Amino acid sequence: MTKFDLEQTLLADYNRSWSRDGVSGERIAFRLGELSKIGLTAKFGVTRVGFSPLEQQAKELVMGWMREAGMTVTQDGAGNVVGRIAGKQNQSDSIASGSHVDSVPEGGHFDGPLGVIAALEVAEAWKEQGVTPNKPYEVYIFTDEEGTRFNGGLTGSRAMTGALDMETQVTLKDADGLSFEEVLTTTGKTVKGFTEAKRENLSMERFIEVHIEQGKKLEKANLAVGIVQGIAGPSWTEIIFEGKAGHAGNTPMDDRQDALTAASELFLYIEKAPAMVSTTGVATVGKVHVEPNGANVIPGKVSLITDIRDIEEQSRDQIVTNVVKKAHEIADSRNVKVAITEKMRTPPVPIGTQMTDILNRVFDDMNIEKQYLVSGAGHDAMMLGAHIPVAMIFVRSKDGVSHNPAEWTSLTDCTICAHVLKQAIEKCMEQ
Q1: Domain Peptidase M20 dimerisation spans what residues (predicted)?
Q2: Nearest Cα to Cα of residue 170 among 146, 152, 143
Q3: 202 and 76: one domain?
Q4: 223 shares a domain with 106
Q5: Per the domain annotation, does 37 fall within a domain?
């Protein structure tokens, strides 16, 4: 493997004038670089899926940095990590920030880790400046945000907020046939402990999450950061077509029960489904499993996951309803069976004016042009947003690429965002 050095690549074109007021771009680069080594792939991406030893290793690395920054560190039964600094008004609920460190298979090095490292950088900056915040400050690392292993994301934040259906969760199995309980055991967790991660009171006053944009709007506007106005709510549905496997040569075309042709017809419908309802909805089939998957065998069973999102719950749900209806129609017309299971349905989260106003003031203070964005991706902030005021700051993504080794955000942009987050947290502390 050719040598891969994320830290040095980030530092190569860094504008070091942004290392000031306690915020260190060099420290951000080092920490992103160290995290990139955990699960590094031959393509220089990262595979660090939720509930894996690699995810826990990344958490342990950040937990060490938290302690060095003077934070007390805890980890709940779901694996969510919390680093905490006491405030002058220490009985108050915390002002908080954070993200995740798990990845999709062959993912990038900024989606998730940047939000964690930027949040930690706020604490580091205060330490260098000798500042004690007015209220407690907490940095969160949420477990299994991507949801790769069990086809359902935001697992840690859903567990914490009580939005996870544990009766369903314990029935899940991963691609290797391991049950949810068996997988928990590999990371030293239990179902009982996982269930106890639910909080009756979040003990957070506000939460701000930093994330790469995963789009091109900031890049096209030549801006480092933007203000998110709303988070689209994802709905994941498993659809299984079951026909009859048969010999590809001996079965006439008019006597087939081909599960894959049924699924293919649905794929084409899903591509068009959002535009029938909404201008902001999107729909994707990114995961398909064909059985028996032989070149000379008619597919007898096809399992797929639909990912349907919109910033309006009503239109999102209508798209889902239409897709489910179409799946039944296709199954009937092609003489195959269909089974449909909802895996996840999360409400969209609008960002309230209270939090948007704080970010507006920070952008004005820093003389940054404002760019307002909508997040089509789900984030841990959306789970918290059902209970407390939340905000999101997006950072420019090169070519809009994410979930890919080519995912890239410059160190200058990362550091600018850390400054924006620090000032936003400080303004939250004042209220």
Answers
A1: 234-331
A2: 152
A3: yes
A4: yes
A5: yes
Half-sphere exposure of 157 (CA within 13 A, CB side): 27
User: In which band, very low, low, confident or very high, does the pLDDT at 311 lie, cut at 50, 70 and 90?
Assistant: confident
User: What whole-number distance in Å separates Cα of residue 215 and Cα of residue 273?
Assistant: 22
Q: Is 211 annotated as a binding residue?
A: yes
Judge contact between 126 and 133, C-beta under 8 A: yes
pLDDT tens digits for range 316-369: 999 999 999 999 999 999 999 999 999 988 888 889 899 999 999 999 999 999
Of 301, 319, 345, the one marking the end of a domain is: 345
Mean pLDDT to the nearest integer, 58-83: 98
pLDDT in tens, 250-274: 999 999 999 999 999 999 999 999 9
pLDDT over threshold 90, residue 145: yes
CATH number of residue 313's parent domain: 3.30.70.360
Question: Is the predicted pLDDT of residue 31 greater than 70, yes or no?
Answer: yes
Residue from 287, 274, 276, 239 nearest 259 by CA: 239
Answer yes or no: do 172 and 211 share one domain.
yes
Q: Is 403 annotated as a binding residue?
A: yes
Residues 334 and 378 in one domain: no
**Separation between Cα atoms, residue 346 and residue 325, nearest integer Å:** 20
> What pTM was estimated for this model as a whole?
0.81
Is residue 156 located within the same domain as residue 272? no
For residue 24, the domain's CATH number is 3.40.630.10
- Domain's final residue, options 345, 363, 398: 345
The reply to whether 100 sits in an annotated binding site is yes
Output the pLDDT for position 48. Answer: 97
What is the pLDDT, as a whole number, of residue 2?
A: 62
Mean pLDDT of the chain: 95
Confirm whether 355 is domain-assigned: yes
Clarify whether residues 217 and 280 are in a common domain. Answer: no
Question: Is 124 marked as a binding-site residue?
Answer: no
| Total tally of structural domains belonging to the chain | 2
Please report whether residue 1 resides in a domain: no
Instruction: Give 154-208 pLDDT, tens digit per residue.
Output: 999 999 999 998 999 999 999 899 999 999 998 889 999 999 999 999 999 999 9
What residues make up the domain containing 260?
234-345
Clarify whether residues 228 and 279 are in a common domain. Answer: no
